[in-house]
Design a protein that fits this description.
Strand order of the largest sheet: 12-19-16-17-14-13-20
Shape: elongated
Number of helices: 4
Helix content: 10-25%
Oligomer: single chain
Strand content: 25-35%
Number of strands: 20
Largest sheet: 7 strands, mixed, barrel
Mean pLDDT: 97
């Protein structure tokens, strides 16, 4: 028996988990949640393992009917959620019954909300993951966004206690932020002035922003070396600069190889912050050293582990 029915589809809602690892050599990206911090916390709030699949809603939410009792939790963007017409909050769990309706209103903050269902969303595994990769039409719900009439299945789950994330641990989403970044592997392709501009200028997120990459607009970056690059591996947070001179930050559904020079690489925490920003929002980049980046990476996951203990 299905657990949830889509009564009205949002702009772009997909089923995601923490990604499809081990297939980059075959040209298959990792995909997974754009904001893994929010995805992990949402799952823990309903008693799931962090790897369980859940819904990622971008900019707008869906109207959903629950077909059986379960626990739910919303994290990430505040899309003004209502359960049976009553306002509910992000970052805490709620018990729902068959026939209950969850709907969303105005986007208040953030860009992507995560809805976890106790037992986890159950769709076929594709190469070890339930994450949706729309460009290849694999994973998730038939490899696409959710549509009206779709029915979602979950595994049975034992009754769960009420959980909430203390306010001091909840992220704040702003319209302008600073993002720590490492100097990129092809930074020498750019003039010293351009490297300085990149780290001392403000860039605006454009409307060309999706799960593959987020295009920025600001002072154009000039190349010192004009020779073409042989395509080489890309990582989450790589900042490529095409001939336009405008940076592109590569995100969860990024291609596996690319030939544009990379001026910087964002830290994990920076990618998470960027995933919750909207077109028109502004960013500036802070240069840090490799040793600092390694420590901040460890701290990111140490903090996640701490929150898991809090939510047990």
């Amino acid at each position: 028996m299905p657990s949830v029915r889509v009564l009205k589809a949002g702009l772009s809602t997909t089923i995601q988990d923490l990604g499809r690892v081990g297939y980059l050599a075959l040209g298959i990206p990792i995909s997974g949640a754009m904001d893994p911090f929010s995805a992990c916390v949402a799952n823990w709030l309903v008693g799931n393992a962090k790897e369980q699949a859940l819904l990622e809603m971008t900019y707008t939410g869906d109207t959903l009917e629950f077909l059986k009792p379960m626990q739910i939790a919303l994290t990430g963007a505040n899309l003004s959620p209502k359960l049976n017409g009553a306002q509910i909050s992000n970052w805490e769990s709620y018990a729902v019954q068959a026939g209950d309706i969850l709907e969303f209103g105005q986007l208040v903050s953030g860009a992507r909300a995560y809805l976890a269902l106790s037992g986890g969303v159950q769709v076929p595994l594709v190469q070890g993951s339930r994450a949706t990769y729309i460009r290849a039409k694999i994973g998730g719900f038939l490899g696409r966004t959710l549509q009206k009439g779709d029915e979602i299945f979950t595994l049975p789950s034992p009754p769960q206690q009420k959980r909430l994330l203390p306010k001091k641990h909840r992220p704040l989403y702003t319209k302008e932020t600073s993002l720590p970044a490492l100097l990129g592997t092809e930074a020498h392709y750019f003039s010293l002035q351009s490297v300085r501009r990149f780290f001392h200028s403000t860039y605006t997120i454009t409307k060309r922003a999706d799960r593959m990459g987020i295009c920025l607009e600001g002072i154009a970056l000039e190349r010192r070396l004009l020779k073409e690059l042989v395509s080489n591996p890309l990582v989450l947070g790589s900042v490529q600069v095409p001939s336009s001179g405008q940076p592109i930050v590569l995100m969860a559904d990024r291609q596996t190889l690319g030939g544009y020079p990379k001026i910087a690489t964002l830290l994990k925490e920076s990618v998470v912050a960027l995933a919750q920003m909207l077109p028109g929002h502004k960013v500036h980049f802070i240069p840090i050293k490799l040793e600092q980046a390694q420590e901040r990476y460890k701290t990111f996951y140490k903090n996640l582990s701490h929150l898991q203990e809090i939510l047990k």
